[in-house]
Write a structure and sequence with these properties.
The complex is a heterodimer of chains A (332) and B (309). Chain A has a two-stranded antiparallel ribbon. Chain A is an all-alpha fold. Chain A is built from 14 helices and two strands, in the order ββαααααααααααααα. Chain B is an all-alpha fold and 309 residues long. Chain B contains 14 helices and no strands. In chain B, α4 crosses α12 and α10 crosses α14. Classes of the chains: A mainly alpha (332), B mainly alpha (309). At the A-B interface, β1, β2, α1, α5 and α6 of A face α1, α4, α5, α6 and α7 of B.
Chain lengths: 332, 309
C-alpha cells in the first residue's frame, strides 16, 4: 500500500509499506525465507503474536457482519429482539427498503456529502500543505496546531458548530451580515435546503487537518533534486508545480480521494449530533437512517439491510483503493 | 514512489527549504518585501499564522462562549472578549460532570490497554516476524477493509450480542468497543514504524543468546518507544472522543463517559450554551494537551495512514 509512512526523526516519506512484486512469484513462494531452526521458531512466535489481533477481528467484525446479514434476512421487531429470535423472512427487508423514498433520500444525501466534502478537503488541504511546505520548528508547530479540529471529540465539534451557526446569536451569521454577504440572518440548521451544507462545512473543517498532513508528507517525499534540476533548466514556480508537484502528488491525492469517499459513506456521528437527520429527513444519510431504524423505531431487520447496502458500497470502494495502491507497485 | 528504508535512529536528513534554496534571491533590491527571499518567507509565515488562526477560531469561540453570561451570549453583536470572564461556569460544569470525566478516564484507559495488547504484538509480527508475504498481505488488506466497515453496521449485531451476554452498562464492554476505532489504525502505523527499526537489533539479541520472546520484549520494544507512545495516544484520544458506543451501550449515569454529559446538556430543552461550551472545552483538554506535548509523534501517526473517523 503506498501509504505515507514515517521515519522517526526526519519527518515523513511516502514509501512502499510492503514488499513489491512478490505476489507474482507464487510458484516460488517461500523463496528467500530462511529455513533455519531459529527462523522457524521466529515465525511460530510471530504467528502466536498475531493471534490476539485475529481473534479481535473475528469477534468484533466478522461475527457481527455475519449476524448482520442474518438479521437483514429476518423479521425482527422489538418482541423478537428481546427474545433473541430471528425468524427468517427472505428478502422482505430489502424489498421494503427499495420501495421507501427515505432510503433513496439517504442514498442521495450520502452521495452529496461525499462529492462535496472530499474535493473541498483536497483543494484546501493541498493549498495549506503547499503553504506550510517548509522545514523548521515554526511550521511544525503550525501543522500540529492545525490538528486540533481533527482530534476534538465529534460531539464537541458538532455542538460548537451548531452554536456558531445559530440563527440569531451565531457568530457566523454575524460575520456574514457585517461583511454584507447576506442581508439577514440565515437559519442554517432549521432549513431543509441548507442543513445538509452546514453539516458538510463542519465535516470539511474536521477533515482538512488530515488532508494537510497527508499532502505535506507527500510533498516532502518529492526529491529536492527534481526542483534543483528544474531551476537549472530555468523553470519558475508555476512550472515546478505543473511538471513536478502535480504528477508526483497524483498518487497521494488519488489515495486520499478514495479513502475520503469510503469514509463519507460511513458518515454518522457528526450528522447525528448536529441534526439527527432532520429537519424532516433533509440530512438523513445512510448511517443515521440505519441507526434510527434500529434504535428508535425497532425495525432491526430493515436497519441491517440499510447497513448491508453501506457495507457493499464501502467494500467496493476499498477494493478499488487496494487495487489502485497495488498497481502502483506498492502493496496493501 | 520508491521504497526507502530509513532507520528511525539515523540522523536527520535535511528536509530542505525547497524552492527558496533553489532559486538565488535577487539581492539587488532587498528593500522591497516580496523581492527579497527573507521578505517572502516573512510573508509566508504571516499568511500561515492567519490560516491557522482562521481554522482555530471555532475553538477560541468555544472557550470564550464558555466564559460568558447569559446577556453576553445572547447579545445581538457577539462579544469577542467577555469581561468579566465567568470562570465559575467551568467550575460548575466540572463539578456536575465529575463522575462522567472519571468514567471517561476509566474507559479510555481500558481501551488504551486493550489496543496496546492487541496491536503491539501484531504490528511486530507483521513487520519483523518473517511471516510469508501472502499472510502479511492478507492481514493488511483485512485491516484496511475492516477500517471502512461502517461502525453503525456493527452496532446492531454488537448490541444484540452484548445484550445476550448481559454485558451492557459495563466499563469493559465500552472500552473494548472503543478499541475498534484504534486497533486497525494502530496496527498499520506501528507496523510501518517497526519496519524501519534496524534489523541488527534482532540479530544482536540472538547472538547474545536471547530467545524470540526476549528479542521482542527486550530488544525491539525498548527501541520502539516513540511508536508505542503514538499508539497509546491515539487509542486514548479515540476512546475519549467516543460518543455513539457509550450512548448505545450504557444507560443511566453510572458508567457513562463525559461525552454523554455533553449530549445530555445538548438534548435538554433550555439551550444552556455556556454550559455546553464549558463542557466542550473540558472535553477538548486531552486533545489540546497532546497537540502541545507530542506534536511530532502525532504528525507521524496521522500520516502513517489516512483515517478519518
Amino acid at each position: 500500500m503506498s501509504t505515507v509512512t514515517t521515519d522517526a526523526n526526519a519527518g515523513t516519506r511516502v514509501s512502499a509499506v510492503c514488499g513489491r512484486g512478490e505476489g507474482r512469484r507464487s510458484l516460488l513462494r517461500g523463496r528467500g525465507r530462511s529455513r533455519s531452526p531459529q527462523a522457524l521458531r521466529g515465525r511460530r512466535f510471530a504467528r502466536f503474536l498475531l493471534l490476539p489481533l485475529l481473534l479481535f477481528l473475528l469477534a468484533m467484525y466478522v461475527y457481527p457482519t455475519y449476524t448482520n446479514i442474518r438479521l437483514s434476512l429476518a423479521n425482527v421487531g422489538a418482541a423478537q429482539f428481546i427474545t433473541h429470535t430471528m425468524p427468517f423472512d427472505g428478502l422482505a427487508n430489502y424489498s421494503e427498503l427499495f420501495s421507501t423514498p427515505t432510503f433513496y433520500g439517504a442514498l442521495l444525501h450520502t452521495a452529496l456529502f461525499a462529492i462535496v466534502t472530499v474535493p473541498l478537503q483536497v483543494v484546501i488541504g493541498m493549498l495549506i500543505a503547499l503553504l506550510f511546505n517548509r522545514s523548521g520548528r515554526r511550521y511544525s508547530v503550525l501543522r500540529a496546531l492545525l490538528l486540533v479540529p481533527w482530534l476534538l471529540p465529534l460531539i464537541v465539534t458538532g455542538n460548537l458548530w451548531v452554536w456558531m451557526l445559530d440563527q440569531f446569536y451565531g457568530v457566523i451569521n454575524f460575520f456574514l451580515t457585517s461583511l454584507g454577504i447576506t442581508s439577514h440572518n440565515i437559519s442554517w440548521l432549521s432549513s431543509t435546503h441548507l442543513a445538509l451544507w452546514a453539516v458538510v462545512v463542519t465535516n470539511t473543517w474536521v477533515g482538512i487537518p488530515v488532508a494537510t498532513m497527508i499532502f505535506s508528507a507527500g510533498l516532502r517525499a518529492i526529491p529536492g533534486e527534481l526542483y534543483e534540476a528544474a531551476a537549472i533548466d530555468g523553470a519558475g514556480p508555476v512550472r515546478w508545480h505543473r511538471y513536478i508537484t502535480v504528477p508526483m502528488m497524483a498518487d497521494v491525492v488519488a489515495i486520499f480521494v478514495l479513502l475520503g469517499l469510503v469514509f463519507s459513506v460511513k458518515i454518522f456521528d457528526i450528522v447525528y449530533i448536529m441534526t439527527s437527520g432532520g429537519p424532516g429527513t433533509s440530512t438523513q444519510v445512510l448511517g443515521t437512517y440505519a441507526y434510527e431504524l434500529a434504535f428508535t423505531s425497532d425495525h432491526w431487520g430493515e436497519s441491517a439491510a440499510v447497513s448491508n447496502v453501506m457495507l457493499v458500497i464501502s467494500v467496493a470502494l476499498s477494493l478499488l483503493y487496494i487495487r489502485f495502491s497495488g498497481r502502483r507497485g506498492a502493496l496493501a | 514512489m520508491t521504497a526507502r528504508a530509513f532507520s528511525p535512529r539515523a540522523g536527520r536528513p535535511s528536509t530542505g527549504v525547497r524552492g527558496a534554496t533553489v532559486k538565488p534571491s535577487p539581492s539587488r533590491r532587498p528593500t522591497h518585501l516580496l523581492r527579497s527571499r527573507r521578505g517572502r518567507e516573512v510573508v509566508r509565515t504571516i499568511i500561515s499564522c492567519c490560516v491557522v488562526a482562521f481554522f482555530l477560531f471555532p475553538v477560541y469561540w468555544m472557550v470564550v462562549s464558555a466564559l460568558k453570561s447569559e446577556t453576553q451570549l445572547f447579545s445581538s453583536t457577539p462579544v469577542f472578549w467577555p469581561h468579566p470572564a465567568l470562570w465559575s461556569n467551568f467550575w460548575g460544569t466540572l463539578k456536575a460532570s465529575a463522575n462522567g470525566i472519571k468514567n471517561s478516564f476509566i474507559i479510555a484507559g481500558i481501551s488504551t490497554a486493550v489496543t496496546s495488547f492487541i496491536s503491539i504484538p501484531a504490528a511486530y509480527a507483521l513487520a519483523k516476524g518473517g511471516l510469508s508475504t501472502r499472510l502479511v498481505r492478507s492481514v493488511l488488506i483485512g485491516l484496511i477493509i475492516v477500517q471502512v466497515v461502517p461502525t453503525i453496521m456493527l452496532m446492531t449485531p454488537l448490541y444484540e450480542i452484548a445484550s445476550r451476554l448481559g454485558v451492557l452498562n459495563n466499563y469493559g464492554t465500552v472500552g473494548l468497543l472503543d478499541s475498534m476505532y484504534s486497533v486497525p489504525f494502530c496496527v498499520l502505523i506501528l507496523r510501518a514504524y517497526m519496519r524501519n527499526l534496524p534489523g541488527f537489533l534482532r540479530e544482536a539479541a540472538i547472538v547474545d543468546g536471547a530467545n524470540e520472546r526476549q528479542v521482542f520484549l527486550r530488544a525491539v520494544l525498548p527501541n520502539a518507544k516513540p511508536g508505542l507512545a503514538t499508539v497509546a495516544i491515539f487509542a486514548f484520544l479515540f476512546a475519549w472522543g467516543d460518543f455513539i458506543f457509550a450512548l448505545t451501550f450504557t444507560t443511566g449515569t453510572a458508567v457513562a463517559p463525559a461525552t454523554l454529559n455533553l449530549y445530555a446538556l445538548q438534548s435538554s430543552y433550555a439551550s444552556a450554551w455556556s454550559e455546553i461550551m464549558a463542557m466542550g472545552s473540558l472535553l477538548a483538554i486531552p486533545a489540546v494537551t497532546v497537540v502541545i506535548l507530542a506534536q511530532r509523534l502525532l504528525q507521524q501517526g496521522v500520516t502513517g495512514f489516512g483515517v478519518e473517523r
